[in-house]
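C-alpha cells incoming
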C-alpha cells in the first residue's frame, strides 16, 4: 500500500522506522504532473532500493516573480496512479505552508555552476532548488537520489551540494526520456499550442546537428552554436533564451571543444519555456 504523507512530523516518524529496519531509501524529488521522464527515475529507484520515496512539491522558492508558479500544471489524482504503477512506497506531498511556515532565516546560496544557462536567466532559481533539496534530503535521508539529465545544470548543482555539505547519499543521473519525435518530455509541454508542438522537436534536432558538426571535426564552439541557433530560428516560432556549449559538469566556457561538454538550450514559446541538452565527449587530439 502506498502511503501518502503530507506533514513533516509524520514523514520523520516513518523514515525513522525505515532506518531502524536498515532499509535502503531511494528518493525522487519532483514538482508533480508526472510523465514518462519522472517514471524513468521512479523505475530506477525501485530497482535499486528497498523503499522508494517520491516527493511532489511545486517549490515557490525556485520560481522568479515573473515565472509560472501559479499556472504550473498540477494533477495529484493522476500522479498517485503513476506513482503507484511504479511501485512507489511513500509520496511526500506537503503544502508550501508545511515546508515554509515562516520566511526562512537560513537559505543555501549556490556559488558555482550557475553563471551560465538557466542560472543566468533565472536568478535565484538554483538557490531555491538547493534550499528545498537540503530540507528534503534531511527529511527523507535517502541512500540514493535520482535526477534527470534533462535538467543537467540542476544535476551538476546537486552534485556540488551533496559533495560540499557531505550528504551521505549518492546522486544518480538518469537519461532524458523523449517523445517519439525527439521532444524531451516535460510537464510544461502541455502549454505548447498545436503549431508550437509540431515545431518543438526541432530543438532536439538542432542539438543533434551540433553533435554531428562536432563529430565531423568542428572544434569552434561559436560555429556550432550559430548553426544550432539558425536551425531553431528557421524551424520554430520560439524565441531563443540561450544556446550554449560548455564544459560539463563545471559549465565553463571553452575556446576549443574538447573533453566532456554540454550543448544546452532554452527556447521560449508563447506559454512555455523549454530546455534541452546533449552531453558528449570529444576525445582529446594527440599532441
Ligand atoms: P520536475 O518535476 O520537472 O522538477 O522534474 C523532477 C525530476 O524529473 C528532475 O530530476 C528532472 O530532471 C526529471 N525529469 C524531468 N523531465 C525528464 C525527462 N524528460 N527525462 C528524464 N528525467 C526528467
Amino acid at each position: 500500500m502506498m502511503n501518502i504523507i503530507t506533514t513533516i512530523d509524520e514523514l520523520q516518524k516513518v523514515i525513522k522506522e525505515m532506518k531502524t529496519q536498515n532499509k535502503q531509501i531511494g528518493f525522487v524529488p519532483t514538482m508533480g504532473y508526472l510523465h514518462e521522464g519522472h517514471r524513468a527515475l521512479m523505475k530506477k529507484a525501485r530497482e535499486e532500493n528497498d523503499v522508494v520515496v517520491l516527493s511532489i512539491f511545486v517549490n515557490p522558492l525556485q520560481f522568479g516573480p515573473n515565472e509560472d508558479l501559479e499556472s504550473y500544471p498540477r494533477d495529484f489524482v493522476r500522479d498517485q496512479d503513476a506513482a503507484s504503477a511504479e511501485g512507489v512506497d511513500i509520496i511526500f506531498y506537503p503544502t508550501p505552508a508545511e515546508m515554509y511556515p515562516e520566511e526562512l532565516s537560513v537559505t543555501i546560496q549556490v556559488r558555482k555552476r550557475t553563471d551560465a544557462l538557466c542560472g543566468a536567466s533565472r536568478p535565484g532559481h538554483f538557490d531555491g532548488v538547493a534550499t528545498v533539496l537540503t530540507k528534503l534530503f534531511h527529511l527523507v535521508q535517502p541512500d540514493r537520489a535520482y535526477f534527470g539529465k534533462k535538467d543537467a545544470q540542476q544535476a551538476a548543482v546537486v552534485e556540488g551540494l551533496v559533495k560540499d555539505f557531505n550528504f551521505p547519499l549518492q546522486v544518480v543521473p538518469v537519461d532524458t526520456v523523449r517523445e517519439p519525435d525527439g521532444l524531451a518530455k516535460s510537464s510544461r509541454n502541455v502549454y505548447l499550442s498545436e503549431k508550437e508542438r509540431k515545431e518543438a522537436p526541432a530543438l532536439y534536432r538542432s542539438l543533434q546537428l551540433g553533435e554531428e558538426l562536432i563529430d565531423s571535426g568542428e572544434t569552434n564552439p561559436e560555429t556550432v552554436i550559430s548553426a544550432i541557433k539558425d536551425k531553431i530560428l528557421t524551424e520554430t516560432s520560439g524565441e531563443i533564451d540561450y544556446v550554449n556549449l560548455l564544459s560539463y559538469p563545471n559549465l565553463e566556457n571553452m575556446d576549443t571543444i574538447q573533453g566532456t561538454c554540454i550543448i544546452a538550450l532554452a527556447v521560449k514559446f508563447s506559454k512555455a519555456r523549454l530546455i534541452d541538452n546533449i552531453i558528449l565527449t570529444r576525445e582529446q587530439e594527440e599532441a
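note: The chain has a mean pLDDT of 97.
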